[in-house]
Amino acid sequence: MCEVIGTTDIVEKGTENVVFRTCHEESDRVVFQMGTSDAVRALAAAQIVCKDVAAVDVNMGCPKSFSISGGMGAALLNKPELIHDILTTLKRNLDTPVTCKIRLLNSSQNTVELARRIEKAGVSALAVHGRRVADRPRDPAKWSEIADVVAALSIPVIANGDVFDYEDIEHIKLTTGATSVMVARGALWNASIFSPKGKVPWEEVKREYVKKSILWDNDVKSTKHTLKEMIMHFSCLELPEGKAVTKSETLADLA
């Protein structure tokens, strides 16, 4: 617990590095997502945070090399037995809801088959990203294949992929039949995407994000990453503002 700012901090052993920070007000809303390739280690990590979060999620869809090389993320998609081991271990030992996220396999039939196996493991919900591992972010998300998963399961399905405006949230729900929606890049670029009144200018969102990052003493690397993603989408890192963010070393530099 950090008494100065009233947060619950998970600190890397032997260091002062905060690897996860939350607060009591968020405990019934924050879902802790982890990458893992081992059921025992997954449980050990989950037991550290489970009392301070609303659910524990296992990422089985990340295609990034750092994740794949560690046997995590999308590397799990072709290992259904390991998936079952991880999820059932978590379910058996946690009172906190367990969910997971996958992406599409090489055919809709195979995706549905995997989704059914995951449902049988006892998860509370399943998020499905509408792209395959080989797809690029610019490739359209296949909402119809998410709909196939929704039709096959009885648990809530969370649709993910190509949600960039508030209107897209309702559109993907209607198209897929999904219970809810996960937003990634759209929220990273402009968090006001969730407002039914429409987005506020990204510059305003950026300023508010920096204020909150300073208020909660957010990790400077994480803050820089988010700001750089916003600037790359709406502007250019080679302009003075972008260069200043790139060179910054502290939250004060970003103010």
From TrEMBL:
CDD domains named in the record: DUS_like_FMN
What one GO molecular function would you report for this record? Answer: tRNA dihydrouridine synthase activity
Q: Pfam families, from UniProt?
A: Dus
What InterPro entries does UniProt report for this protein, alphabetically?
A: Aldolase_TIM, DUS-like_FMN-bd, tRNA-DUS-like, tRNA_hU_synthase_CS
Q: What GO cellular component entries does it have?
A: cytoplasm
Highest taxon listed in the record's lineage: Eukaryota
- What are the record keywords, sorted? Flavoprotein, FMN, Oxidoreductase, tRNA processing
Domain DUS-like FMN-binding, by residue range, is 2-229
Keyword Flavoprotein listed? The answer is yes
Q: Which cofactor does it need?
A: FMN
Q: What is this protein called?
A: DUS-like FMN-binding domain-containing protein
What organism does the record attribute this protein to? Rhododendron williamsianum
Q: What does UniProt list as this organism's lineage?
A: Eukaryota, Viridiplantae, Streptophyta, Embryophyta, Tracheophyta
